[in-house]
Design brief:
There is one protein chain. By secondary structure, the chain is α/β, with parallel strands linked by helices. The protein has helices spanning 20-25, 32-39, 53-68, 93-101, 117-130, 206-211, 220-241, 259-268, 280-283, 290-300, and strands spanning 4-12, 17-19, 43-45, 77-81, 107-111, 137-143, 163-171, 177-185, 193-194, 217-218, 251-254, 309-316, 320-327. It is built from ten helices and 13 strands. Strand 4, helix 4 (93-101) and strand 5 (107-111) form a beta-alpha-beta unit. The longest helix has 22 residues, at 220-241. The chain is globular. It starts with a strand and ends in a 6-residue tail after the last strand. Bound molecules: oxa(dethia)-CoA. Oxa(dethia)-CoA binds at residues 30, 34-35, 38-39, 115, 154-155, 158, 193, 220-221, 223-224, 227, 257-258, 261, 285, 316.
C-alpha cells in the first residue's frame, strides 16, 4: 500500500472583513463582548457580491499547486467539498474549477458533508493515491455561507465566514502521511442544523423566501453538545487504533466552529494549549474550508516538523464527523 500525504496546501480568504462591531452596527441586539465570549470570533471574511465559491476555490487551488511545486497537468483527480456550490443543481463546482485550472482528462466531482467536507474529501481522495491508481489528487474545500445566513438573526450570522482551503495529496515516504481516517454520520440529528427548504423536498417559492426557510437554521445548544460528544470520543478511539497515545499528538487541528467547543475538546483530550491550532478569531466558521485554511497557515509559518503527528477533526451538519491522523513529512518520493 502506498503512503499518502499532504504535499501542498493553499488558502483563500475574501478581502472584506466584517468585525463584531460591524455586526452590532447593523442594528442587531448583540454586543462585541457577547460574540467574542461565547464564540471566540472577533471578525470574519465575507465574499464580495461578484465572488462565488468557485472563485475562492480557484485561488486556494492555485496556491496549493504552487506550494506542492506541481502544474495543472500533474493532477489526476479533483474533489471539491462544498455545500454552497455556484449552482444549486448542476454543473458541479468541481467542473467549473477543473476548467479554470486547465486540468485535462481528469475526473472532477463535488462532495457534500457540510463542515466535515474536508475530512471526507481528504479521506476519499487519499484512496486513489493509496491504491496506486493516481499520483496526485487535488482536494479543495470551499464555502460561502454568508449567502445562506439571515443577517438579522443574531444567533446564526455571527458565526459563519467565507473562505477556501486546498491540499494536494501525493505519495510520501513509507510510514508518513495519513495513518488513519475515520468517518461517521448520524442522520437522525439532521434537523439540528439545516437549510429547511429550496431542495427537492420543498422547492423554492415566494412563501419559502418570505419565511427565510432557504437560510441556515440551527439549534445551537444541541449542536454544541452533539459536536463535543461525537468527535472527542472518536479522536480518542482513532489515536488508540493508530497505535498512538495522546502524548504523541504534536498538533490538534479541529474544525473551527466555536472556541468553547475547541477548548472543551482540548481539555477532554488533555492537550496543551500550544498543540491546538486556532484561527477562529480571524475567520469565524468557514465550514468545510476551516481545517485546510489552518493547515495552510501553519505550513507557511513553518510550524510542522518532520515526523509530527497531526490530528484533524471535523464535525458538522448531517450530523457528520471525522478524524484524520497524519504523520507530517516524508515528501521526498
Ligand atoms: O460547524 C458546526 C456547526 N455549528 C456549531 O458548532 C455551533 C454550535 N453552537 C454554538 O456555537 C453556540 O450554541 C452559539 C454560539 C450558537 C450560541 O451560544 P450559547 O452559549 O449556546 O447560547 P444559547 O443558544 O444557549 O443562548 C443563550 C442566550 C439566549 O437568550 P435567552 O433565551 O437566554 O434569553 C439567546 O437568545 O443568548 C442569546 N443569544 C445572543 N445574545 C446576544 C443568542 N445569540 C446571541 C447574540 N448576542 N449574538
Amino acid at each position: 500500500m502506498i503512503s499518502v500525504g499532504i504535499t501542498g496546501t493553499g488558502k483563500y480568504l475574501p478581502e472584506k472583513v466584517v468585525t463584531n462591531e460591524d455586526i452590532v452596527n447593523m442594528g442587531l441586539d448583540t454586543s462585541t463582548e457577547w460574540i467574542e465570549e461565547r464564540t471566540g470570533i472577533k471578525e470574519r471574511r465575507v465574499a464580495e457580491e461578484n465572488i462565488s465559491s468557485s472563485d475562492m476555490a480557484f485561488e486556494a487551488a492555485e496556491d496549493a499547486l504552487k506550494d506542492a511545486g506541481l502544474d495543472s497537468e500533474d493532477i489526476d483527480l479533483l474533489i471539491v467539498s462544498t455545500t454552497t456550490p455556484d449552482y444549486q443543481v448542476f454543473p458541479s463546482t468541481a467542473c467549473l474549477l477543473q476548467d479554470r485550472l486547465g486540468l485535462r482528462n481528469v475526473g472532477a466531482f463535488d462532495l457534500s458533508a457540510a463542515c466535515t467536507g474536508f475530512s471526507y474529501a481528504l479521506t476519499t481522495g487519499a484512496q486513489f493515491v493509496k491504491s496506486g491508481d493516481m499520483k496526485n489528487v487535488l482536494v479543495v474545500s470551499v464555502d460561502c455561507l454568508s449567502r445562506f445566513v439571515d443577517w438579522t438573526d443574531r444567533s446564526i450570522c455571527i458565526l459563519f465566514g467565507d473562505g477556501a482551503g486546498a491540499v494536494v495529496l501525493s505519495e510520501v515516504d513509507k510510514d508518513y502521511g495519513i495513518l488513519l481516517s475515520e468517518l461517521y454520520s448520524q442522520g437522525d440529528a439532521a434537523d439540528l442544523l439545516m437549510v429547511p427548504a429550496g431542495g427537492s423536498r420543498r422547492m423554492m417559492s415566494m412563501d419559502i423566501l418570505e419565511q427565510k426557510e432557504n437560510l441556515v437554521r440551527m439549534d445551537g445548544r444541541a449542536v454544541f453538545k452533539m459536536a463535543v460528544n461525537s468527535f472527542v470520543p472518536s479522536v480518542l478511539n482513532a489515536v488508540k487504533k493508530a497505535g498512538l497515545s495522546l502524548d504523541d499528538i504534536n498538533y490538534f487541528v479541529p474544525h473551527q466552529a466555536n472556541l468553547r467547543i475547541i477548548d472543551l475538546a482540548a481539555q477532554k483530550l488533555k492537550l496543551d494549549k500550544n498543540k491546538v491550532l486556532i484561527n477562529i478569531q480571524k475567520y469565524g466558521n468557514t465550514s468545510s474550508a476551516s481545517i485546510p485554511i489552518i493547515m495552510a497557515e501553519a505550513k507557511r509559518e513553518g510550524l510542522f516538523k518532520d515526523g509530527d503527528i497531526i490530528v484533524m477533526a471535523g464535525f458538522g451538519a448531517g450530523f457528520t464527523w471525522a478524524v484524520n491522523i497524519l504523520r507530517w513529512g516524508g515528501i521526498n518520493v
